[in-house]
Amino acid sequence: xxxxxxxxxxxxxxxxxxxxxxxxxxxxxxxxxxxxxxxxxxxxxxxxxxxxxxxxxxxxxxxxxxxxxxxxxxxxxxxxxxxxxxxxxxxxxxxxxxxxxxxxxxxxxxxxxxxxxxxxxxxxxxxxxxxxxxxxxxxxxxxxxxxxxxxxxxxxxxxxxxxxxxxxxxxxxxxxxxxxxxxxxxxxxxxxxxxxxxxxxxxxxxxxxxxxxxxxxxxxxxxxxxxxxxxxxxxxxxxxxxxxxxxxxxxxxxxxxxxxxxxxxxxxxxxxxxxxxxxxxxxxxxxxxxxxxxxxxxxxxxxxxxxxxxxxxxx
Amino acid sequence: xxxxxxxxxxxxxxxxxxxxxxxxxxxxxxxxxxxxxxxxxxxxxxxxxxxxxxxxxxxxxxxxxxxxxxxxxxxxxxxxxxxxxxxxxxxxxxxxxxxxxxxxxxxxxxxxxxxxxxxxxxxxxxxxxxxxxxxxxxxxxxxxxxxxxxxxxxxxxxxxxxxxxxxxxxxxxxxxxxxxxxxxxxxxxxxxxxxxxxxxxxxxxxxxxxxxxxxxxxx
Lengths: 315, 219
Description:
The structure holds 2 protein chains of 2 kinds. Helix content of chain A is about 45%, strand content about 20%. By secondary structure, chain A is of the alpha/beta class. In chain A, the strands form 3 sheets. Chain A has a 6-stranded parallel beta sheet, sandwiched between helices. In chain A, helix 2 (about 45-60) packs parallel to helix 10 (about 270-285), helix 5 packs parallel to helix 6 (about 165-180) and helix 7 packs across helix 8 (about 220-235). Chain B is elongated. The interface of A and B includes residues 124 and 299 of A.
């Protein structure tokens, strides 16, 4: 008798574990959203993912964040799991504009809509819709400020983001489209620091040895801008060399307020995340056609107007 | 010397074998890497379709909309009204706070600066003055203010941005230089152009109009 009770207890526990393992969906009508994010190592993406999760939960959906750690293979596993576990929509912040296409396609082929947040996929058919910041225009505006700040003359360094990400090139192209028109402004070095703060610091330290006479550093995101600024502080050149970033992260906004960074471009991850969740909701209600790409405005943040902005464009 | 059954020395056969393996390895290794310079990514050429779209926009669709563009002072007056619906007067292409507007009017040249020309429109208490960009002609104002050329019509973001570059280049090379060569303070000029404003910031003192057509009026 004791053995029968024991087996019944074990069986009950196993059933409970299996039921829990079938995903977070308790109510069959409750929609599940997988938020697959490129990395949670950068606070900007943490904010993007958590805002999307909060917004999804506010609308009554179940949401879970998957961290791809900037690794396309890991992202592929997340897609396979999301499809296998029966998620109803995927919000994707891609690791690579080309490399993530196959991953997104897997979900699309399985009938799961994919809404891209912030990072573009190079194949429009690989996603239901893509909601991205207007990085190019933001850097055109930043380029204008850069030229004015330098008095149309000087030497600078550009730190690029991840080479496989379209944002890296949209930002760089927008910036160069303006700055390259001024022949007395010379780029002495251009190097990738993978959107990473520590790497940016190391890269700039090494560039400064060959080019100690630069006037400015343009960085493709705020994490790299903060790393570059740290490198300049270490050699006592932070007041002479101007640093420009992109994102509107908390430490960049704080740095502009305290006289550190010269400017950044504010992105609005909250708007991106809210739009992606809203699109998912429309899909659940039966909508099938969405704009291929939706652009979200970005805004230039300078010491003159920084008081009206909060980090990550929170409103 | 020891020879194999085909009469070739075994040493030569080894050389041939390892040589072939080496060649195959080099071939595979060469084709495993795809090296592109960073510069090549930046200077990726726009395709002819973008040029065609930009040209069609500047010569056909934009002039039609510009013909009914607002007079600058009346527009600014309307935008400064409390609770003004900026969408009624301009276009909003993205999610956010930026609006694009078209203007046309005649005014008097007040100031010629090294990066802009200031024009005074109207007279008396309703007069206003605007900066016309002459150096920093970069942006999407001309492309987006008419609402006639949209990202969804063009498809690719890169092509959409390329159209903006082509339009700006044409303005910078064909509209501005001839005007700057002849313009003088006090002259009467006819202006058509576009500008952008951020509703969060309101009407700032330093916003600039990107000109699409500039003409000095000689009487």
